[in-house]
Amino acid sequence: MKESPADPNPLIAGGSQELFPQACTIVIFGGAGDLSRRKLIPALYNLALDGLLPTQFAVVGFAIDEMSDDAYRNFSREGIERFSRRPLSEEDWQEFSEHLFYQTGNFSEAAGYVGLKARLEELRPSSIPTVERRLEQMVAAQLAHRAGDALFNAALGISEAMARVVKSDQA
Fold it and tell me: Which spans in the chain are helix H?
């Protein structure tokens, strides 16, 4: 439905239409999977090209596969080359790839999340204060309860309210 001038969008009325994205870290649970390669990484690359990602951001793939940061960057580059709506530019790739990282871990083991927590702290620039972490899970339903328990047990900084949401989704 096209909005008429008489019906301005109440969410932006009187406000600035420019977005100022804040520094962030995006964790892709299942980051070495097909969804990540075909959809998520190419979409993030395109958002970066559009200037819609903050200047200070990190993307951390988290999965059980053993992989280095460089191997994850190669995996991501292949996905962008094959599935991005825009062709890969070497200059843009060099800048984007500096923000890609990988952490090996098992969804059902707390040790993987402890490693993830340490990696997130390592990647957080000192100029960015610790902020509340909000986690969205994109894992198979049969793994969700294990992932939720492991996140809570590893004390990644999620609030008790978020832990209750994760646990209620299991029911």
Answer: 34-35, 41-49, 69-83, 90-97, 110-123, 141-154, 160-170
Structure-token pair, residue 148: 């939720």
pTM: 0.70
70-90 burial, b at 16+ Cβ within 10 Å, e below that, comes to: eebbebbbebbeeebeeeeee
pLDDT at 111 over 70: yes
Identify the pLDDT of residue 64.
94
pLDDT attached to residue 4: 44
Q: List C-alpha distances in Å: 83 to 34, 42, 47, 76.
A: 11, 7, 14, 10
Write out the two tokens for 126: 């000192």
